[in-house]
Amino acid sequence: MELKVHNIKGKETDKKVKLNKSIFGIEPNDHAIYLDVKQYLANNRKGLHKTKERAEIAGSTRKIKRQKGTGTARAGSIKNPLFRGGGRVFGPKPRSYDQKVNKKVKKLARKSALAYKLKNKEVLILEDFKFSSPKTSDYIKIIKAFGLESKKTLLVTSETNKNIYLSSRNIKNSKVIINSELNTYEITDANNILILESAVEGIETTLK
Question: Does residue 96 belong to any structural domain of this protein?
């Protein structure tokens, strides 16, 4: 399984990259993708929601009216949840939404997501490049060279490149990530994946 390498001007070069069939060519597992994406979104939830219960409301503890003879229901506290400004009954409390997914399932999910992208011809291999300084216009030129300016793109690099990251940060539908941090959600969320030539080996090593 081979893909041609493109330069940053969007043209094919004479080079080719051989992709590992056991990673990019597997039969995709939809359920594994579902589990991994669900875990990613759940683990990103902060779980800091909180309401005050009866004991936490600030207010007088004086009995607000006599027990009998008012013609209405008895009431002992202004903090009663039935009154406006009272405590909340069974309100939300801070909690963790973290979920667990086995490592093998997570690997299978990433392989499946990559296999889908390759099958749909949404994976491009780029020659390694670097920016001497952060410049958003230079990054936009690369995206436009492939006709992807209106689509969500994910650029996968082999190592952290601050200038490339800063150049892409202001572009709404573009994201840069290193191969070791590649996850199923980012893969499935992008319309097209641009992988630097040097990053392919790292992806295959991680998912082997």
Answer: no
